[in-house]
Please model this.
Amino acid sequence: MKHKLEVDYNAARGFLADREVNDAFAKSIKALEVLEGREGRGNEFLGWLDLPSETDETLLSRIEGVARRWQNGIDVVVIIGIGGSYLGSKAALDALTHHFDLYLEKSSSPKIVFAGQNLSEDYLSELMELLSAKSAAAVVISKSGTTTEPAVAFRIIKQHFEEKYGKEESARRIVAVTDESRGALRKLSEMEGYETFIIPDNVGGRFSVLTPVGLIPVAVAGYDIRAMLEGARDMQKRSSEHSENNPAVAYAAIRNALYSSGKKIEIIVNYNPKLQYVAEWWKQLYGESEGKENKGIFPASVNFTSDLHSMGQYIQEGERHIFETVISVEKPNRSLSIANDPKNLDGLNFLSGKSIDECNKMAELGTRIAHVDGGVPNMRIILPEINEYNIGSLFYFFEKACGISAYMLDVNPFDQPGVEDYKVNMFALLGKPGFEEKAKELRARSL
Model:
């Protein structure tokens, strides 16, 4: 029997009255009922709720077929996407991949790199140097095909592929993940003969990691997407329980109780650098889902113990408007202990024979105690170990808790109207047709 993800909120209870906790749990369970009853705002985008249990064998076989096809002769696969089309797969791959795989070449699978997640000329130019030197393929991810950053990157990479490999071979090296029937990328894929996978209409980008958006990169990198979906499927079942034992209900309840008490910033903390991009994915998921109508907890992140030497002072003694949620990994995948040194010039022989993980665990415990004593409520999300099963479970847990939490705030978790504002300004300033008057208005201003 597998150990399961758990939520421990004991170190936050002392900052809340029993009445506040009880009220928050009641609201959280009610929000779960609204979410699963498809009764809330944005309910047309709830396809992600059933993805773990409804992903069929045909789709998995097709994804694994792409991975097998690119096992031989492809050195590098570029994943082209931004936001939810990028962060989920980046989070999964960083969690599962050997830190130094690029140098040791421990895996026979293609190396995964990313494009379309920024507009840096240096980044894209350096990527093109890599693609010129290596045999490459690409997965382009976009519902519309017109999102600026990935569309620019794909235009450049497509041209490079066609010059290097020819149009016919390029088509075999490009896979598109896009809308089922409409959009520029769908039209181009049909014209060029790219193999395509569908982003379901009822799944928004930041909830798409368990669709082909996230599954294809993970499979191509050589990891077990079936185990990842199994973890998500088990969490789907656990997080449907209408009780305080539901980890998604508990997390949503306590974070909203803390928010109501004046804690406006949540810091997600990891003590394992493999989880840094899980935090980046989490920040988009919660920031874009909850941050609207002048509401929402501000999502931030730190990597401990590294950031204890930079952010630790503020967390310990700065303004008391923060709380922490620690992703605590119970069991490392490796073992390494500290040797005895007869000279003991560093004074660390008291650590002789201890594992690095024991030191890390004591740093985690000591820091949590110090921060709680300093007025910072703490929760723990306990992950048994880092593997495909638990990463799938963690993804679905955060998604389910996000839907619950946003409905507790009475906001629509599935739109992002504020994101469009910068795009309008950028298009106008870059000279997109139809934006001429807006461009004049913007250029008349000075900041």
